Amino acid sequence: MKKKLGIGKAFLYTILVLYAIVTMIPFLWALSSSFKTLEEIVSGTISFIPKHFTLDNYKQIFIEQQMFPRWLFNSVIIAVTVTLLNLLFNSMAGYALARLQFPGKKSIFIIILAVLMIPAQVTMIPNYLILKQLGWLNSYQGMIVPTMINATFIFMMRQFFINFPKELEEAAALDGLSRIGTFFRIVLPLARPALAAQAIFVFMGSWNDFMRPLIVLSDPELFTLPLGLNSFKGQYISYWNYIMAASMVFTLPVLVIYIFFNRYFIKGISFTGGK
Amino acid sequence: MKKKAWREAGTGYLLLAPTLFVLLLFIIGPIVFAVFLAFHKVQLLGTSTFEFVGFDNFKRMAGDLRAKIALWNTVKYVVIVVPCQTMLALVLAATLNAGLKGQKFFRIVYFLPTLTSSAVLTLIFMWMYNQNGLINHLFHAIGLPTYNWLGDPKVALNAIMMMNIWSTAPFFMVIYLAALQDIPDSLYEAAELDGASAIQKFWYVTVPYLRPVTSFVVIMGLIGTFQLFDQSYIFSAGSGGPNNSTLTVVLLIYQYAFKTLGTMGYAAALAFVLAIIILIATLVQRRFSKEESLY
């Protein structure tokens, strides 16, 4: 019996380790390629350790390709603004739908649920025409305003506030705080775990989005990183050493965020997916 | 009292104001607008013009060879990728949940692809798929045939499939992982008393218990795979090539809407059909899993 367990465990460990290798290889390969010389890249030899370790690729993309820092900046501005606005607006909406009584509340909630099921492709073309009409193509607001709320997280925040202890709010009301005051001073600070999970997902979604910037932005000055990276590939089509260095620069911020917020990540997913 | 009710309603609308604004201007308005567009021919030169054409846009699909290819590619992709990624996610989650050491470490490693942007992942894989690249070297080393992954129309879509199963499975794995923690130990203890092996326990306790979660994972998978765009766009530099082999429905919609003149209305009609296909696939899946759980 004991021996059998040992074999079973060894088998499970084998699966775990093998799959970890399968997951790591593309990243390690990209990382190692980003430190290789073009000579080594085109020679087609397979080695994870660069023969002549070089930082030239990174220098190249930051110095020769002056747009690169600009793309990084655009991505940061857009992702951070979108995240902050989402946190604020989704919580406000979730709170109103969970706690306040007003005519039309039920219909608004049903509409928000229904919106969850509409694929983005349906609204993509009209959205483009509306942004064009507003003169918001090629602008930060064209990227930010349409994504500053998210039906999924409004729904999530509503569930969160419904389960929130009412006594705290009642106490605040007795102390003379208005509804809005209670929301901002008492409720929102206590919603931190839910907000953290939401922040990560919204940030990642905006940071990694490819389709919206592709449609909204056409001026290279305003490109976000995914778009910049794609145009970069077109420019340096066979310079895989540069392309890999650029990819690594792009991935690093997300990795850092992930390592910091790892806890909330898993929680956030189980919150949205579990039940 | 009445004043209080009024004030509460006012506060409610105030808190909802940004949401309603975006909802009306960028979601509900566009849905209505999309229906309008699907029945019009749209010209964007200078001032936009809309000419009513009835069902012409929908009729046009029947004779559009590229639309058929795109639909066929997308369906093939969905049918292969969804079951593969679901099974892989389940196996990985069960393995991670077996109480082994180092789970935390493996969890972090496994989750990496989900974090990384599709643009970066696609570029990394294109680099590995190079004819003289890492994947062909690995395949050669273990005695498998090598391919021209990027250039051969017969394998290009498979290359995207492999990449996507690899990158999406970990996300669903985490969902399974959360659900696995809810399974009561008593179920396993009872199975053990009946002399069930580890594999039997997995098959007769774990899998049936997870059925609702599996249903959720499959629906999310369907919705995601039907919308495949980034990977095939970057892979083929926007063309859907080689020889239309990576052309997906969404990529085709994008091309008709933004890359050719005068076909925006047709693209809107295609987007509509795609939405309906996704809706039907989701309903069929629901029906299917409900019937199963009756037993």
Automatic annotation (TrEMBL), chain A:
<feature type="transmembrane region" description="Helical">
    <location>
        <begin position="71"/>
        <end position="96"/>
    </location>
</feature>
<keyword id="KW-0813">Transport</keyword>
<comment type="similarity">
    <text>Belongs to the binding-protein-dependent transport system permease family.</text>
</comment>
<keyword id="KW-1133">Transmembrane helix</keyword>
<feature type="transmembrane region" description="Helical">
    <location>
        <begin position="12"/>
        <end position="31"/>
    </location>
</feature>
<dbReference type="GO" id="GO:0005886">
    <property type="term" value="C:plasma membrane"/>
</dbReference>
<feature type="transmembrane region" description="Helical">
    <location>
        <begin position="143"/>
        <end position="161"/>
    </location>
</feature>
<feature type="transmembrane region" description="Helical">
    <location>
        <begin position="239"/>
        <end position="261"/>
    </location>
</feature>
<protein>
    <submittedName>
        <fullName>Binding--dependent transport system inner membrane component family protein</fullName>
    </submittedName>
</protein>
<keyword id="KW-0472">Membrane</keyword>
<feature type="transmembrane region" description="Helical">
    <location>
        <begin position="108"/>
        <end position="131"/>
    </location>
</feature>
<dbReference type="InterPro" id="IPR035906">
    <property type="entry name" value="MetI-like_sf"/>
</dbReference>
<dbReference type="GO" id="GO:0055085">
    <property type="term" value="P:transmembrane transport"/>
</dbReference>
<feature type="domain" description="ABC transmembrane type-1">
    <location>
        <begin position="72"/>
        <end position="261"/>
    </location>
</feature>
<dbReference type="Pfam" id="PF00528">
    <property type="entry name" value="BPD_transp_1"/>
</dbReference>
<feature type="transmembrane region" description="Helical">
    <location>
        <begin position="182"/>
        <end position="204"/>
    </location>
</feature>
<dbReference type="InterPro" id="IPR000515">
    <property type="entry name" value="MetI-like"/>
</dbReference>
<keyword id="KW-0812">Transmembrane</keyword>
<keyword id="KW-1003">Cell membrane</keyword>
From TrEMBL, chain B:
<keyword id="KW-0472">Membrane</keyword>
<feature type="transmembrane region" description="Helical">
    <location>
        <begin position="12"/>
        <end position="39"/>
    </location>
</feature>
<protein>
    <submittedName>
        <fullName>Binding--dependent transport system inner membrane component family protein</fullName>
    </submittedName>
</protein>
<feature type="transmembrane region" description="Helical">
    <location>
        <begin position="209"/>
        <end position="229"/>
    </location>
</feature>
<dbReference type="InterPro" id="IPR000515">
    <property type="entry name" value="MetI-like"/>
</dbReference>
<dbReference type="Pfam" id="PF00528">
    <property type="entry name" value="BPD_transp_1"/>
</dbReference>
<keyword id="KW-1003">Cell membrane</keyword>
<feature type="domain" description="ABC transmembrane type-1">
    <location>
        <begin position="71"/>
        <end position="285"/>
    </location>
</feature>
<dbReference type="GO" id="GO:0005886">
    <property type="term" value="C:plasma membrane"/>
</dbReference>
<feature type="transmembrane region" description="Helical">
    <location>
        <begin position="157"/>
        <end position="179"/>
    </location>
</feature>
<keyword id="KW-0812">Transmembrane</keyword>
<dbReference type="InterPro" id="IPR035906">
    <property type="entry name" value="MetI-like_sf"/>
</dbReference>
<comment type="similarity">
    <text>Belongs to the binding-protein-dependent transport system permease family.</text>
</comment>
<keyword id="KW-1133">Transmembrane helix</keyword>
<dbReference type="GO" id="GO:0055085">
    <property type="term" value="P:transmembrane transport"/>
</dbReference>
<feature type="transmembrane region" description="Helical">
    <location>
        <begin position="108"/>
        <end position="128"/>
    </location>
</feature>
<keyword id="KW-0813">Transport</keyword>
<feature type="transmembrane region" description="Helical">
    <location>
        <begin position="264"/>
        <end position="284"/>
    </location>
</feature>
<feature type="transmembrane region" description="Helical">
    <location>
        <begin position="77"/>
        <end position="96"/>
    </location>
</feature>
<dbReference type="InterPro" id="IPR051393">
    <property type="entry name" value="ABC_transporter_permease"/>
</dbReference>
